[in-house]
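Quarterly update from the structural biology core.
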Amino acid sequence: MAAEATSLALAAILAIWVAIGRGVLFGAGVSPRNVLRSHPGLLRFFVSTNWRTTVRNASKEVDSLIVGGILGSASAGLYKIVKQVASVLSRAADPLYQAVYPELAKLWSAGDRAGFRRLLGRSTLMGLGAGIGFLALFALVGRWVLVTLLGGDCGAAYEPTLIYLSAVAVQATTFAFHSAALAMDKPADSLVVLLGVTLVYFALLVPLLQMAALEGAAAAYFIFYVLWAIIIGLRLRLWMRTTPA
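Predicted structure, tokenized:
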């Protein structure tokens, strides 16, 4: 936590330093009002992306509390292991997300719809390969790794982790979808989709937990990401068809 906070602080200091050097912060005529007037979508982008981050982080904490409340602390501990194993793949996709967004935004703003589609397609295939590869690797050696490194009791986390990783594989496959929505100036639309599928996720989480314990919780997460991928994918397709170059 401290290392992450330090890296964020250093990144902020560097960004401010560069902005000062280029006259962005204290240049002539620079004020929040002028910046927002020159870039009318900036405030909407900022608010939507921050709300999206808030919703995702809150939901990741709330589901663990629900698991603990229904199944007890031991199951909550196993579920934490499930999420930690799955986070290896999702964290690996973070740099890709940061790298693909500027390129998608550049292609979209230039009116290069064909290039935009090609990059989105390549990104999807790359994420699909990584997701399937990691899922297959865990299917082969995951139980052995859990038992060997964490103890025999943690072998019970194998099946839930396998299901949860299927959801993260969908996440990896669609890692560029949100970036594409941002590049197309649709941050609020992406947030609305996320809010909708998050509500569905929590509506399914409790009954599936009661029916199938941790496997049910992982299944709810899988349904969450499949729904998100389908809906946002259809929206992207519609926006590409209806937005003029």
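Residues 41-242 form one domain.
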